[in-house]
Design brief:
The protein is an alpha/beta fold. Helices cover 25% and strands 25% of the residues. The chain has 8 helices and 15 strands. Bound molecules: S-adenosylmethionine.
């Protein structure tokens, strides 16, 4: 019996499998990027989405599959690995789910969404509940191809969207590892005052935005100072970043923290666990993350 299904980000099945194994969760089979577990669901940092109440349903026909889903609830998102034609025919019989790209800043969709797939032509896996409000955990945006100097801005857009909160006009932000300035661009565009810290300079267009200042130097050399939002996209060993987060949290100087935790080679699960264990913090893989996790924390 499948009790939980975890959707791995593209190409990141390994860290998800390792995380589940460390947590004592078995994986009986993979259906594409979906890890099928006989054990009860568990919060997962690496999963894009967790199907928390999966049921295997015999579906002798397309109509039977669509009827079974409609009998449970209105909104369903499909995860298609195989049997694409049959899945499309079933989806056609379901109410449409609008999965339009978001226009930042806006809140994530609030309507209840389940997930389903065909494990075999006559066997469906359907979960009325899942952890992500997005179809297959994909938080897509109408992109800004003109303003930001790097695509890293999409990570910050997603982190803020998933928090359902973003800096307001006049709030102070410290952006560590800011160059060339994608994150600084996002924060300044929201009207915040941003101190961008990097050894490298900002893109001149970002440096010239109102409220932006550049501080040349290392993120690790800055003593905690009062700031509403502390952000970091620095490339650093997770342990070093963990020490930085702990220092700022202990000082009580930052209202909120958003750090990208980057991994090179093998995933440092011990460091990830330590981040996840920080009270009032949350560690998650964003759809726009690569081999990285995003740590968010809020002062009580
Ligand atoms: C992935 S890039 C950041 C991209 C940026 N968030 C954006 O949106 O454009 C990482 C940056 O970290 C900077 N960096 C690396 N070590 C640093 C340190 N110790 N202190 C400050 N910046 C550092 C690098 O110079 C680089 O610009």
């Amino acid at each position: 019996m499948i009790q939980a299904a975890y959707l791995a980000p593209d190409g990141l099945e390994k860290p998800l499998a390792e995380e589940l194994s460390r947590a004592g969760r078995a994986v009986d089979a993979w259906h594409g990027r979906l890890a099928l577990s006989p054990d009860p669901p568990l919060p997962s940092a690496w999963a894009l989405d967790v199907w928390t109440a999966p049921r295997e349903i015999a579906v002798p026909s397309v109509k039977a599959a669509a009827d079974a889903l409609r009998d449970i609830q209105r909104n369903w998102s499909a995860y298609a690995v195989a049997h694409h034609r049959r899945m499309a025919l079933i989806a056609e019989r379901l109410p449409p789910v609008k999965a339009r790209p978001l226009v930042f800043p806006e809140h994530p969709p609030s309507s209840h969404l389940g997930a389903w797939t065909l494990l075999a032509p006559d066997r469906m896996l359907a979960s009325a509940t899942k952890t992500s409000p997005f179809v297959n955990g994909e938080c897509a945006f109408v992109e800004d191809h003109i303003g930001p100097p790097s695509r890293a801005y999409l990570k910050l857009w997603e982190a803020l969207t998933r928090l359902g909160a973003w800096p307001g006009p006049g709030e102070t932000c410290l952006d560590l590892g800011a160059a060339p300035g994608g994150w600084t661009f996002v924060l300044a565009r929201l009207g915040a005052r941003v101190a961008a810290v990097d050894k490298a300079p900002l893109d001149p267009r970002v440096a010239a935005m109102p409220g932006v200042t550049w501080r040349e130097g290392s993120a690790f050399a800055i003593a905690p100072e009062p700031v509403d939002w502390l952000c970091s996209d620095v490339v650093a060993y997770p342990e070093r970043l963990l020490a930085l987060a702990r220092r700022w949290i202990a000082a009580g100087s930052a209202g909120r923290i958003i750090f990208t935790v980057k991994f090179q080679g093998d995933t440092d699960h011990a460091a990830a666990d330590a981040f996840a264990a920080i009270p009032d913090g949350h560690l998650t893989h964003l759809w726009h993350n690569k081999h990285e996790l995003t740590f968010c924390w809020r002062r009580r």
